[in-house]
User: Fold these one by one.
Assistant:
Number 1:
Amino acid sequence: MANHLVIMAGGIGSRFWPMSTPQCPKQFLDIMGTGRTMIQQTFDRFGGLIDIEHVWVVTSKNFAELVREQLQGINPQHILLEPCMRNTAPCVAYVSWKIQAEDPEAAVFVAASDHLVISPREFQRCVAQGLDFVCGGDRILTLGMQPTRPETGYGYIEQGERIADPTLETHDAGKKGRRPSAFASLLSPIYKLASFREKPDLKTAEEYLETGRYTWNSGMFLWQVSTIVSELRQYAPEIAEIMDKIAPTFFTVKEQAMVDKLYDTCPKISIDYAVMEKTQLAYVMPAEFGWSDLGTWGSLHTLTPQDDDRNAVIGDGVKMIESEGCMVRMPQGKQVVIQGMKDMIVSEHNGTLLICQLSEEQRIKEWH
Amino acid sequence: MANHLVIMAGGIGSRFWPMSTPQCPKQFLDIMGTGRTMIQQTFDRFGGLIDIEHVWVVTSKNFAELVREQLQGINPQHILLEPCMRNTAPCVAYVSWKIQAEDPEAAVFVAASDHLVISPREFQRCVAQGLDFVCGGDRILTLGMQPTRPETGYGYIEQGERIADPTLETHDAGKKGRRPSAFASLLSPIYKLASFREKPDLKTAEEYLETGRYTWNSGMFLWQVSTIVSELRQYAPEIAEIMDKIAPTFFTVKEQAMVDKLYDTCPKISIDYAVMEKTQLAYVMPAEFGWSDLGTWGSLHTLTPQDDDRNAVIGDGVKMIESEGCMVRMPQGKQVVIQGMKDMIVSEHNGTLLICQLSEEQRIKEWH
């Protein structure tokens, strides 16, 4: 039973312009200036847990070359190319059908390609616990991010009943009688998943926080491939039917043509709505490894180390003078002097420069 | 009696960073985005009045190549290279001694290489009148810029007695009896030059404006070469002596070596102090052709056409949103979005970006 990683890399990151462009969106960029792109960081984060031969990427046809360049060593048969965007349910179905064809016993972690994790060690601990948990039975687990503020930019997950025993024993069920591992004391609680909630208004978000029963929906899922395929068959039979038609061509030269022909007949629906809200097998594990979907410049500002004047500066040639609360992201080596700026974004990428108020970041996509 | 143009091009324009750099200062840049550099515009401005074979440039040794590139067709013997900066008196002496060696009857216009003129037609009218005036006798004429505001960044010239008849007759003295030219009615008044005044404080500048007897010192001079050489001999004998030593090498391969050897023995003194304040031959003609020394980004802001929100934008890829009072100067073709900025300078040149408050422009030279 091998662990597989599915990286969803079809997004276009329009709010992160000018760094993110339709030709090279956020997941293929080194947003944080660390030397690794977001998708590379996503892959790196699983180091030691999941091998490159078990990595799968679902992306747009336009980005195939970027994926091959940035994740060298990936099996080209594991790069799945969507001819059009059909939200996450068809995407999950396609990759799950294909993983099942290769490894029917696979345990799968589904992750977005462009999210940020601050503590990779705690992330790995959560992944390990989650994989153990879903391997212990027919379970669909989502990682809920412990909220740190009444964020209105994320969806929320409501927790149901706490399950009795999320220990290693669930996975080691075959080895009764052994003493519980010392790791048992490090395990996170796991809950039945009660419901998904759309992005709330501020008042609702504050109420969510107060109850302690809501976490942010990060879009990270874990399951055995057999479980999700079975649930998709039950709750999204339309999609399952299409996948069954494509399946005979998997790993052949005819696969892409078949996908191109049938994929856009799938309904546009998220995996949350298609399966998670209906299945009886859904669980949520609150996690605290410092997470952001890096959806906006403001989230990057929050997560980048700041100087005493709350400036977050990425780029080694930037000199800040009498400025505060700014998010500055300039190419390495570029000489920049910024004086007298407050709460602004300054970002240049591929020769395009954006200067705007942080408070107006939601409008960035209107301007280019 | 030919008309000659001397362009002083030794400045370093440090307040105009990042456009202006020690390697390529302001006069060699297309600051206004017109397709012509400042020194080219300076030359262009005399089109029809002074031919390229009568143009002289005094500049630093570092800029010889830039001058040759930008003023193609100039006689290489007319590019005078200062080994060090000694203010304007030695510079004027050097070029005057050399012009006299080539054309003892020359009438000369001395201009800075990096100033802006808004109305070239009125400029040419003033030049023509000025050349006629100095050709009519032993006279040293300076063009005083009619002040439009109590500027504290310029020196001022005090006017003395108005001279009786600045008409064309002064030049046509040999043709008595002819009716005065119709141009006579277009002529500007000319005054004896009473004194030079240093950059004033605001109160003093306001008083100057009120009297109507002060103009800005633009550093534009006109004279016959014989007049200025004679006055330099009288009032700056030290400098004259040095020029007499260099003169035998003019137009030979030994000239530069001799200049390099002797030039730094000249006193550091401006032509204003060395000659203009002492001579009995100094006159001032108020002129109104829209002038700026373009010393700062603020002056460029004032002089560039502005949109309804007082933004002056140079660069065809710049989009201004909810911004006002900004001076933006970006390379042609560069895509830039600027939102929510007020009274700021945004300028990029050679890959270096400056963003700062217009009010702080005097500090720019500290930042690079």
Number 2:
Amino acid sequence: MQNDISSQVSIIPLGGLGEFGLNMMVYETEDDIIVIDTGFMLPNADMPGVDLIFPDIHYLVERKAKVRGILLTHGHEDHIGALAYVLQQIDAPVFGTQLTLSIASGRLKEYGVLGKAELNAITLGDKVDLGAFSAEFIHVTHSIPDSVAIALRTPVGVIVHTGDFKFDSTPVIGKLSDIQSLARLGAEGVQLLLSDSTNANWQGQTPSERSIYDSIDNIFQKTEQKLFLCTFSSSIHRLQQFVDLAAKHHRLVAVTGRSLTNNIRIATELGHLKMNPDYLIDARDVALFKPHEVVILSTGSQGEPRSAMALMALDNHPFLNVEPNDTVVISARIIPGNEKSVGNVVNHLLRRGAKIYHERNANVHVSGHGSSEDLKLMINLLQPKFFIPIHGEYQNLVRHAELAESVGIPRDNIRVAEDGELICITPDSCEVFERQGRSGRVLVDGKPEIELEDIVLRDRIQLSQDGMVIPIVVLHSDGKEIATEPEIISRGFVYMDESEELFTEAKEITRGVIENLTNEQKQETEIVQDEIRTVLRRFFSKQMKRSPLVLPVVMRV
Amino acid sequence: MQNDISSQVSIIPLGGLGEFGLNMMVYETEDDIIVIDTGFMLPNADMPGVDLIFPDIHYLVERKAKVRGILLTHGHEDHIGALAYVLQQIDAPVFGTQLTLSIASGRLKEYGVLGKAELNAITLGDKVDLGAFSAEFIHVTHSIPDSVAIALRTPVGVIVHTGDFKFDSTPVIGKLSDIQSLARLGAEGVQLLLSDSTNANWQGQTPSERSIYDSIDNIFQKTEQKLFLCTFSSSIHRLQQFVDLAAKHHRLVAVTGRSLTNNIRIATELGHLKMNPDYLIDARDVALFKPHEVVILSTGSQGEPRSAMALMALDNHPFLNVEPNDTVVISARIIPGNEKSVGNVVNHLLRRGAKIYHERNANVHVSGHGSSEDLKLMINLLQPKFFIPIHGEYQNLVRHAELAESVGIPRDNIRVAEDGELICITPDSCEVFERQGRSGRVLVDGKPEIELEDIVLRDRIQLSQDGMVIPIVVLHSDGKEIATEPEIISRGFVYMDESEELFTEAKEITRGVIENLTNEQKQETEIVQDEIRTVLRRFFSKQMKRSPLVLPVVMRV
């Protein structure tokens, strides 16, 4: 694997190959490293108490003197959400478009690294030299403006890393994807393409962002009372259409949610979002207007329990409410895993008499990721020698590899790699190896600098299954006698108020266990604990068919 | 609400109106009660440790002398899964088709109530008199054979309860839905229709079960190695097509999974499933044959971690394995909430080099529930005076109500009711009231006769969020002095091996708290506990930004 090291680039996926989110890729030569994207990921329901997931960046930290730059493709959290975490551990200049950097700055400030961060705003077409690499930023359309693909000139040739993209022929904000530059690179010769696999399983071409305009227009027309429009706070194109339609239908715009308010401010300042400030009202003033005079922009499209939308669904919002004949539009993809929480919100809104539109009953959302035909077009424009699918679960990567084969990339030139592996590319070859050293994910609960260990997570899951029982015995320090009656505390196992008998018996059993031990055994805390644990587990299993965690405590006085 | 009680029927939804699963409906006159269906429900991820959910049947138990019969529409667990639980508490004859009763018997045996259960097999068209009610069983097509709708003749007129159905014009097994009988009832006059809302949000008509045959046939043709076909164990029509295709393609059939084996046996004995026993091989013998000579029928379509399919995906199955170029077909709906677990299984199977077909990339599954056009046809056949949508979340019920209105049922004659309410129907009216008394769900973890209390579940969820910390202090019984150093145990909070310092400090803080209390305060266990809890919570929150459950224990010697 180590032939002529001067003409070799190592590519190390720290995240995003084998999962959605956590996108982070390291490109390395003998002397230099650049990083593309630093994303985070939100936890699943099977990770109780976890707030965030970061990629494990030990690989990078161990080589931090080599890091020449961090390049960001766009301002979505699955691409920039770990930037603060990375900058806490590594000093390197950051490059991205202005919108991307502005959105990222919020969290940098929160983490206290904004001051030391060296943020370099690039404009489209810019070329940046970073050691052995030279990076060119190429505009692509996506659900957030100012998105780029990155073409790296490297010692082994041109490597193109697409970021997230689709080919939107009629984008709402900004230009088309820069097909000309992509075609030019293709003509010059691309050694390796790494391309977004998110929607590889989707047929055809992803419709334009503009394709939902008529349908939302129609909803505006039909709505006689308040109108709530719910989307991701970063969906600036979507928000532009909302405010355009609000103006058309003479509704004032109220915004709820901190991230939405921030992003609207940033996008307006940078000139991406164009709206007449006279149309903006404070969300607290909605009640001052007639229902047909307002539209409320809100987050909470995923049914997040603390979002404005979820609070309104339960009529718990401090100053906004959903009333009969109000209309709620969920203009966002329902992310797999969130169906239940979104469903709950929808059910409650319907109980309040609202009309609901979502992607499953109306044309109110379109994806920002290219479908199979967009992906084929990207490959055909670049005509790469080697191809590696990125961004997605294994099934998406495999499907994207099939698409690449279908447009003529030889099967032997396609590599499906995953996090934790190492890709070595030379002028003639592209191989995947297992990687030594740490890789994986860092779970964050509470302080971001304190990692949540897997074992703690496993304990949480075990505690949640059948709860816990803690028998406490106090022995005299000579070890022969019980100093006081055993105590038992328990949570998540049975309803204690109605289980007095069960615990009285459990205490007697505990006392019995001690009395049956020899004096020598009583001196050994571990033996006492083991005996109590074994006997009580058997007892609870027989009585309740449940298996709580039994954690005996032996104190000595 | 209580006019002439002799011409009133009360309808009490104990489950299934406001959720999927748990279907159970009580029909009541002054002297008589009948029950239609006794379903259970599987828990969501937000109910850790819960095995099963039953409807709360207190309403029925309080009136058990009035119960004349339990009528079952078909053999799916969301309609029969709580039968044993109900029969443990109520003596009543059970009526259902033979297949339904045979499937139900398994669990009755398990619960030890098979001996006392009075099971009455009905044949289609049978009429059964049960006090003030007379029930007629009408065949409908669904994903399991021998399904029925039930027409009740009552003092207020005919009430039709559809059970699950679709109008399949070319069913694989058995007859068409009995459109003639439904039309006859419609002509005679139907007072109230209660109809299945599961797929009310789906456009058009649900395709025939037979519509997937060609696509599965094609997969058989293309598969050169082992073929795994994964479906629900009760999908007898689906299994019939699988075994037919196995015969056509000269593959032997191996069956894995207890429920699948049982249902195949029952359905074969009753003549629903027709297969040549010579084609059956023991799943343990699969390895004795060439890969292209076998097809393996398996459960695990929802990615259940202990299913054969999930074990094979991880190469943990004792005698079956998935190898490169094997093909796996997931011929089932991916139930919302199961996307992640199914996705995990698919990813692992792909890593083994298998080809995967599922409902999202091939025509390998079709629903057993009618879509909007089937639902409209049912309403048009019966032309009921009043209409109540059943089976589904609130959004499905609302959508079905809209469909009923669209085919001419006056809006004022449509009632969207939910569990916990009471529907009163007279010859002239149909009204919904709030119901007094207990209603809801019974959570089962372990022994089915012991209910899991909501508070225990809440404790489990809290334990799973940030874990727990239990500080233990032993005081001399005069209350003035600490008898031994405080002890702290903890799980699910931090990794204890790396947090020695944190706990040493926490112990010192605990000791400090005690020392700062007055002698009077030390005598009051609750005061000691409160002080320790407050101080430690603040400490952990500051140090870790986590909020474990802190449960101080005070022992006295």
